[in-house]
């Protein structure tokens, strides 16, 4: 009953002691506890002590007898113990409980009656009450289940929807029930409970959830806080029209040609009601767009053409032939429907009207006039009269508006012109045509004054048009002046001549007028020409050195009357300028100063001077010489080349000197120029520098004697390493020394820098001994002489160590752990040595500590050796891998705290204490190796499966490997199976001595015989699973023989392996809801209707059994149970079930097309045969009935007022047929056919006369008529009459019997048999 809290309730009842005095001393009976009641707690065990009775008697205490008075069945509640105590002071008996007492469902206060009797019969009676106090031992109970209600989606928040009925028979707080609402399916919970009232707290939306399945939990308010069995609450959401319609299959785009007829169906828009409940119908209409061109069916949404469409219309062309319509889809609202939202929506429809070729190209005028000058060159456009343009257009659209132009070739003069655009060029739509000259030979005013051409625009053989163009040829001045044939074109003149000097003369003539001359191209305007004579003279200053030649044009122009037709001829002439010596030489290459070593040898070329002369010829030839104006000797110059060489010793001439050089031309008179050349005689550098620090005396590279400097590592950049010193015996710059480091193939020289002047050697960066201990560099001491001399020396720099490196783990992949392993359940063993760290310092110090990780208290790490040991043991099934973080440190005296983490703390693949970038840390992963310490375990102690009775021999029924787990891994987890025994259950058919099923060691259960359809029940297999260590687990396996008609197939949107993973959970939920025992027969890959496997789906075959009888539930019933349970729907959706159906139904659908065809042919053949038989029987029946009718019609009635039958129509005959022949006997009847007063039924037409029913002869006559009917060979029954006809006959017989006393049939009218006649005809 769980935890309990006892609550006491006191009910006080006064105990009445009834005494009957029989003698002087009556025994007395009292109860303990006193107070009128005995209080016990409900549910106490039998024999529990609750009180005691004490009896006293002054007369004789030993003979007292205490017993229960059965006045109110007290002995069924309590029991008395044997007497005890001192008779003198009182006899005592204990009262114990004799029944299980329940206060909740029985009275809480029960009367008890006791009595004491002495030996003489005196009696004392005692009445007390047994007060049963309550404990909280009852669970609350829900009433009026199930809870299911319907709510409209627009229900207002805060609305009370349902009142929950729940009770608890306990009292006090134990009877106070608290309710809460749970959402186990996580569908969202828009409800809450206010006490027992279900309140809507959030807005509902039918389109999101159509129902909610919740659980109501109830718990009382006292320990142990009993919980009721949860009650299911299903709230179905009803749709409210609050969502507008929406269009499908968008966008709506159509295209039709412009000649489409009215009424043509273009496209159909389709909208659906946005509400998912009972959708409304939709009405369509236009709200925007050219409605006069189109119409829409308001019901179907189909859009039709309703007017003329012209793609060439200007407004249509501006829109590209596109018509935009806006269609409104409105819901048709029933009168009683609730609407809370917009009931319409719109969509855009685009209809493009395409062009067809229905127009030809057209010129704007039939005749055009143009003119052209006779001298117009090829390509010149013609001038149109009055500024008009030749235009042609086709109002169709692309590509139906393309055409080309051509000029009529019948006239050979038409080749004189061409068109722009060119002939036969494709033109689209509209173009302006320009005529141009194509052959100017035909444009001769003296030959013809005009040319007429035909211009044609051609689209195809059908569509073309022409226009005429008349071209007038205009006369022009077409003769230009001509220069004389022997006209001179080259002239000369000296520079510096006076203005007006004659240069030459030009001569030209013109056949039509005088000629005038002019110059063109004389940009400097240094020449002029006489306009009438053509004489050319100097008009400015001429300088040959500035310009030596002029090329200009002489223009001869005629003088026509019309200045617009003036013509000219140009002739190019050249005027060369002759030289005179008017320029002195000029030096071009003259150095400002030249330095000369004092030890220069004779013949050494010092330099070469260059001078130029702007004159030409001999006037520009130059001779070089040295004058005596210089302050130095010992030099000579080549007079032609200007090369100056040393011709004497310069020793002792150190310092500044200069030479004077002259350049003179060879003109008449000669001209010259002079220039000074500054010289500096240099001192010669004769000595090399010598190193003293480091000393060259301690240096012998070949003997590996190299000066060495020791420097402490890790000094900051720029620290002093060594101060160099070298000396040079030369003076001045030759003795000034600069220091440098010689680059070589190593990188050592890049680590240092030397001050060029002071020789201070410093480091350029951090020097780490652990990276490199020794550096060797070559130092250079170089003087500043010309040329400079240098000396080199090699210096070795050795770094001294300091403790500046932490020990590090040098594993390459820092993202992977260092692996160790240990067998589980192995206590206090050495696991192994961790990956050792390295310290780059000269004297490494490394100690190891556990920094953090999992289960750190289970490990011990030797800080000096790195050996990791286990404290206690590990269980692989609890943790398969343990991650530790180890830190290497140079401090061996640490006492640091260790952090412990769990796998859940890992934000990445490695422990949170581990940083891959910190190489003082090592991630160690200890794999716990498996030992065989777990037995195989069946998922369920009782397994079930089923197979079809018609399976083949050796068919696999079950793979038991799927039903067994083993916490071990590897070879220890391999499970083997053995069959311990096999029995049958509800099996009525003997299967023989052979085992019907066999079990392979790998867990495969297979059939070992053939089964038949009369075999029912199950085989019960006692199976055992064992592993390599012979650890075992047993289970029972019930295998049922079933047929396809008992199975249901579930199709999953999952693979078979995924379905097997959650199979047990699914079956458990289905069994809980359906209250059936469900057996999974098989799980396989799904096959479609063509038999092709669908690997993304799975089929589960199941059957069910009743819990009480263990009989098979028919598949159809199981299927209906699926459909009728909303909970099952939720379960199936949860497990991705997309289809359920009986297997037999599925099998029918999977019949081959060939079988269906055969069945169809058989059915058709049988149907035709049945129709043929029916027709034969109908014909036979007709013939028989016609004969019967004929007999009835010809039978005389007796005792009638007439001797003959009144006007009767023979049955089966046509009264309008002249011969009135009997269709059976083909004999003419001698009866009157003029009156149609009878029906077609011969029985109805038996006339018995107008006599009263009292006449005795009439019954006999009626008997004759009935006898004819009964003697008919073909009765209604035998003629396969319908049940309706039999019913009518029965009614008729009953009616006849009721009228038997009348003994007459006169009262029976023809209408009594009308039904029979109708049925006869309907049968025919």
Describe this structure in words.
- The chain crosses the membrane at residues 1161-1182.
- This protein is mostly beta strands.
- It has nine helices and 86 strands.
- Helix 2 runs antiparallel to helix 4 (1126-1134).
- The longest helix has 42 residues, at 1153-1194.
- It is flat, with a radius of gyration of 67 Å.
- 25% of the residues are buried.
- Residues 1-23, 1146-1150, 1195-1285 and 1302-1324 have low confidence and may be disordered.
Structural features:
1324 residues, mainly beta, six-stranded mixed sheet, single chain, 10% helix
Walk across the major sheet and give the strand order.
30-29-37-36-32-34
- What is the terminal separation in angstroms? 81 Å
Total number of helices: 9
On the 0 to 100 scale, the average pLDDT is 81
Class of secondary structure makeup: mainly beta
Protein name: Cadherin domain-containing protein
InterPro entries: Cadherin, Cadherin-like_dom, Cadherin-like_sf, Cadherin_CS
Transmembrane segments: 1161-1182
Pfam families: Cadherin
